[in-house]
Amino acid sequence: MEDTIVQFIDAVINKLRCYMGEEYEITKDSVIKNNGTKLESILILKKGEKVTPSIYIKEFYEEFCHGRSVDSIVEEILCCYENCKREKELLNNTLDISFEAVKNRIIYRLVNYEKNKELLEQIPHFKFLDLAIVFHCLIRKDTNEIGTIQVTNDWLNEWKIDKKELLKLASINTPRIFPARICTMEEVIEEIIKQDIQRVLDHYTMESMPVLEEEYKEKVIESVMNSLTGGLKKSDSPPIYVLTNTCGRNGAGTLIYEDVIRDFAETYQSDFYILPSSIHEVLLIPNDVKLEKEVLKAMVSDINGTQVPKEEVLSNQVYLYSRETNAFSI
To answer: In whole angstroms, what separates CA 17 from the centre of its chain?
Structure first.
């Protein structure tokens, strides 16, 4: 199969070169994503440009295996390239990654340490529990999309700063740009349902929708809570809080925002178990509930293995926050 996909990529690149001409450099690339996930991609870079989007090839290859022609795939790739040309040209004309230009947009994220060892060799990072704090430069943030570029060791050398200064900047910028948000699991599920309910129930009459929505909501909440608590009776189910950022993307980093966990624990007068649900959020459960840490750990492992995409898994561990020491432990 590996030889087949290589031949497929080479065939696509050769046809793209025929279409684009010598003014463009067309190459294949292997992009390392979170948790060591590698994605094969094609780069179309016009001479004189600094950046260009990666065109991931996996779905195109799967379509090729199901009978789609290379010519048809190349046509779609060219359409994708043309559609993003305006944004790409804007980036090439305005992207400035000098330290002074980006220092107020340096942010951090949390990723799994062991699963990202190859990537961590190339980027500045700090170890935190079984995780790593890594750094990105925010280049775009709007309602629908967030665009970032990973900060590398080469950038640090060019900027002539060390990673401690990077962490100091990110510790100021990240909470400012992506404020923390804590809510109950039920509130999160209700928000998801509100976003999705019209699509699910659009074949019902408006008169019946409020009743159906409430029934649907109760069933979804019950199902999710059961999966998170191992099917405990409702009276024994622990309160579950979701900690993320206001946009809900890469929100696990809120875990290390200064005073967020401490203030929440003081408000509820409880230490907390922390379940790393994904790179996007963590779950907080008071440690006085009728659940043992090993049971929680087994639930996290099961959810990560069955419900979370590989590239979004944060950890299979369960952490404990202590109010007395204001510290985390595994």
So the answer is: 33
